[in-house]
Structures are given as structure tokens and as C-alpha cells.
Amino acid sequence: MRKKVIAGNWKMNKVLKEAEQFVADTKDNIPSSDKVESVVCAPYPFLASLVDKAAGTDLKVAAQNMHYEDNGAFTGEVSPVMLKDLGVTYVVIGHSERRELFGENDDTVNKKVHAAFNHQLTPIVCVGETLEQRENNETMTLVENQVKQALAGLTDDQVKQTIVAYEPIWAIGTGKTATSEQANEVCTHIRNVVKEAFSADAAEAVRIQYGGSVKPANVDELLAQSDIDGALVGGASLEADSFLTLVEAGAK
Ligand SMILES: O=C(CO)COP(=O)(O)O
């Protein structure tokens, strides 16, 4: 059975003291990593401190983005080498907000996924359609293309370690959750795409999260679906109690 991954994506929220307080409030109650992987995706300035504060616990720290080069003249960017050096273990790649607002595309996403593996970071690769694309029945084709391009050139072993997050853009921060059936339908499709593009073993192992208005009230139903292996959570991950409820749901 695939282990669930619950990741809280804080986006551009909190200041350092609040981030540290969150770790202090959660770290002793995070379920064992044998049962669920619990991750907070924090802004860059908090990463060093949070890795330090969460050391020896089952709470893992992720970055929300990175550049694909190791170093160089890229003012304002952060490299995988820097993240690895801090003790960060996961990195979100290709979030829809980065694709929409910061010019990320399938090519940069693919480069970043390779860079993550070159530095032993686990990528959480985001895909998902807009409302318009859903209404035009383009969801399956779009997500298929995003997944194929994001994972292009990876080995089977790397695909097995990858986390794909299916986040329909119309469900992000809107309170509109995809129904669990809608969410699962796309996650099943993603698994089939991985099977075709790589192998049955890779498809069986790859973890596929759902993201978009996940909260304590709907997480159980989403996680009960056959192809949903976790959640990437924005708003409901900001408060310690709510995050703990979500990771406990993942450990059931
Ligand atoms: O974008 C998301 C997580 O990456 C989802 O955000 P919300 O949970 O706030 O809808």
C-alpha cells in the first residue's frame, strides 16, 4: 500500500515567529512517518530555522519552489544545492500560482524535477486545469500532457519516488472542492498515464495527492478514494490544530 503524504503549502503567509510557533505546536503530535509523511512547505526565509526546530521529529520541511541551476547569476533565485544544504527534503514544483503568475511552464517544471532528483530532494509536482478547461472537457488531455512533460526523462525509480499533486485551479482557495469522484477520476487517469509512459510498477508506486480546498471536514472522504494518496493543502494547513487533524487523517 502507498503511504499517504499530507503537505501543508503555506504559500506567502506567516512571519518567522509564527512559523516557529507552528512547529512547536505540532511537532510532538505528528504521527509516525511509518504511517504518513507530514510536510510543511514554507517560505524560503523560514526554512533553516524550521529544519532545525523540526529535527528529530516526523515533520518534514519543503520549499515551495526552486531554480533548476545549481548556482550562478540568477538574482533573487534559490537553488537545489542551497535547499539540500539546509536539510530541506521536499520541494513543490510547478504550482499553478507559479505557472500563472511567474511564467513557469512544462519545460521549466521538467528541468526542476530533474534538478530535484540530482540533489536528493523529493519533488511534489503540481498539475491541474482551469475552470474554462474543465468546462471545455480538456481536463484529461491537459493533465496528461502536464504529467508527461513534467516527468519526461526520469528513470522508473525516480518516478516511483515522485509525488504528483492534482490541483484543479478552480478549486484552489475558492472553497469549491472537486467532489471526491471528480478528484479520483483525474488521479486514476494520472496513474494510467504514468503506466503507459513508464511502467506498471512506477504507476503503482507513484503517490498522487489531491489539492484544492482540502480541510478537516472533507479530507477523510478524499483520502478514501482508490487513487488519492494524500493532500496538498493551502488555507487549512496554516493553523496547527487543523494541520494535525489532516495528518491524522492520513495516518488512519
Ligand atoms: O493550492 C493549494 C495547495 O497548494 C490549495 O490551496 P487551498 O487548500 O487553500 O485551496
Q: What is the average per-residue confidence, as pLDDT, rounded to a whole number? A: 97
- Please summarize the sheet with the most strands: 8 strands, parallel, barrel
Helix content: 40-55%
Please tell me how large the radius of gyration is.
17 Å
Task: Write out the strand line-up for the largest beta sheet, numbering strands in chain order.
Answer: 1-2-3-4-5-6-7-8
Element string (H = helix, E = strand): EHEHEHEHHEHHHEHHEHEH
Bound small molecules, deduplicated: 1,3-dihydroxyacetonephosphate
Low-confidence stretches: none
Our count of helices gives: 12
Beta-strand content: 15-25%
Descriptive report:
This is Triosephosphate isomerase. The chain has 252 residues and is an alpha/beta fold. It has helices spanning 16-26, 47-54, 80-86, 96-101, 106-118, 131-135, 139-151, 156-161, 180-197, 200-205, 216-223, 240-251, and strands at 4-9, 36-42, 59-63, 90-93, 122-127, 163-166, 207-211, 230-233. Helix 3 (80-86) links the parallel strand 3 (59-63) and strand 4 (90-93). It binds 1,3-dihydroxyacetonephosphate.
